[in-house]
Amino acid sequence: MARETVNGTAMSKSRIAYEWIKARIADGTFSPGYRLVLGQLAQELGVSVVPIREAIRLLEAEGLVTFERNVGAQVAMVDESEYQHTMQTLALVEGYAAALAAPVLPPGALAEARALNAELADCLGHFEPARFTGLNRDFHTVLFGACPNPQVLDLVRRGWDRLSGLRTSTFSFVPGRARESVAEHETILGLIERGAPAADVEQAVRAHRLATLDAFLAHRRH
């Protein structure tokens, strides 16, 4: 162990372990509350538990992992109040961004969004929360990405990044919400295709975002 520390091998392996675990927390593979068993992770990565332990310490320092006596390391639970505030803010700014973007969407954007929503619908039969969440973000990005106001666009992107940092997918907790989400996507696409007033597009996107928040909060109360 000492030789590994001196020549840098242990640090390299711990960094690899850190990045590997962090990526799986970010994409939802290791969901909130997931137990991080050192021996199991070490076996999966083909290393000793030493670099795994160091990686866990780094993730704990970042607030991504918690450690409890007699329980061990586990992925930190979602901060409910921060999630709620982020979703409420995103509902406002993304709704406005989508309304501004609708008249200036590039050719093929709606077809791309429809294809993504079709993939989301396909996911419903063999549900994978992490994949659904990634496709869902891609769908929304197509609709708000053409927003001509760079400051509003920056706020939306920051909101989505903050959601990723919270390490949760509502669809993990409330899989039934996924089916409703796909249907709401169709409603939003229909409004944009018909050239509906900006206020209608904004309201539909806002209601869609808040419905996801409501589903999450209802689940937490039960």
Word description of this protein:
With 222 residues, the protein is mostly helical. 72% of the residues lie in helices and 4% in strands. The protein is built from eleven helices and two strands; from the N terminus they run H-H-H-H-E-E-H-H-H-H-H-H-H. The chain has a two-stranded antiparallel sheet. Helix 2 crosses helix 4 and helix 5 packs antiparallel against helix 8. The longest helix has 24 residues. The radius of gyration is 20 Å and the shape is elongated. The termini are far apart. The N terminus is likely disordered.
Overall pLDDT metric: 87
Dominant shape: elongated
Query: What is the alpha-carbon Rg in Å?
Result: 20 Å
How are the strands of the biggest sheet laid out side by side? 1-2
* Annotation field: number of helices: 11
Fold topology:
Layout (H helix, E strand, L loop, with lengths): L1 H6 L1 H18 L11 H8 L3 H13 L3 E4 L3 E4 L4 H22 L7 H15 L5 H16 L5 H16 L4 H4 L2 H18 L4 H24 L1
Antiparallel strand pairs: 1-2
Helix pairs in contact: 2-4, 3-4, 5-8, 5-11, 6-7, 6-10, 10-11
Q: What are the defining features of this structure?
A:
disordered N terminus; two-stranded antiparallel sheet; elongated; 222 residues; 11 helices
